[in-house]
């Protein structure tokens, strides 16, 4: 996988020269190129980048390639996550549950395993249920009991009848934005709260600006390039040696 990512980056990622503060130059990607595959491929590519994350240059870190799940694999995984959370075998009689909605909408086969032969039926049910949620939210937002009623809330202004297409589109997008704020975003947390912040380890030499993803790489750099041996590193090493010695049973 290392060779594959290196090959893709060298051939398909446009690079440009960036001036460094030290006076030198470094090749950096003009834009990131997506590299898609199934879940296993994405995982292997991501782990390769993590292993190379302490490289000296952008090229060494393989930052020009962005591994991702291809759409088919991604949506399949998303369906499985939702089903594992929402589907309960004993909830068929409970109104509004996943199982009940699948039966009522005529998609009874959506109760099967998404990783089996039922994927198309499950996808059809998700599309139907999503449409139903959008319609229900729209009826509530515009104060309507059924789709043939006239809106009683957030009505279309009279001036829009003779307005430009741009003005009509802007009004419509504002309504969609408001609906998302009311019915969707209120129950979601931001991506930042879900993201895992990776701690970076800065070289402890005052004149060095290098940062590392792994502490051992920083220690190795400090010892090799700056002859810097921090006291806590020696303590950790001694502790490790002592623990290893105590756990050794000396049986060959």
Give structural notes.
This protein is mainly alpha-helical and 252 residues long. The chain is built from 10 helices and 6 strands. It has helices spanning 2-12, 39-51, 58-61, 71-86, 98-104, 119-141, 165-183, 191-194, 215-225, 231-247; strands spanning 15-19, 25-29, 33-37, 65-69, 201-202, 211-212. A hairpin with a 5-residue loop joins strand 1 (15-19) and strand 2 (25-29). The longest helix is centred in the middle third of the chain and has 23 residues, at 119-141. It comes from Desmophyllum pertusum. Pfam families: DUF6589. This is C2H2-type domain-containing protein.
Can you summarize this structure?
The protein is 50% helix and 10% strand. It has helices at residues 2-12, 39-51, 58-61, 71-86, 98-104, 119-141, 165-183, 191-194, 215-225, 231-247; strands at residues 15-19, 25-29, 33-37, 65-69, 201-202, 211-212. The chain is mainly α and 252 residues long.
Helix/strand order, N-terminal first: HEEEHHEHHHHHEEHH
Average residue pLDDT? 80
Structural class: mainly alpha
The order of strands across the largest sheet is 1-2
Shape: elongated
Unreliably modeled segments: none
Q: What is the makeup of the main sheet? A: 2 strands, antiparallel
Number of strands: 6
**Cα distance spanning the termini:** 37 Å
Count of DSSP H/I helices: 10
Helical proportion, percent range? 40-55%
- Could you tell me the strand content as a percent range? 5-15%
What is the CA-atom radius of gyration, in angstroms? 28 Å
InterPro entries: DUF6589, Znf_C2H2_type
Pfam family, one: DUF6589
Organism: Desmophyllum pertusum
Domain C2H2-type: 203-226
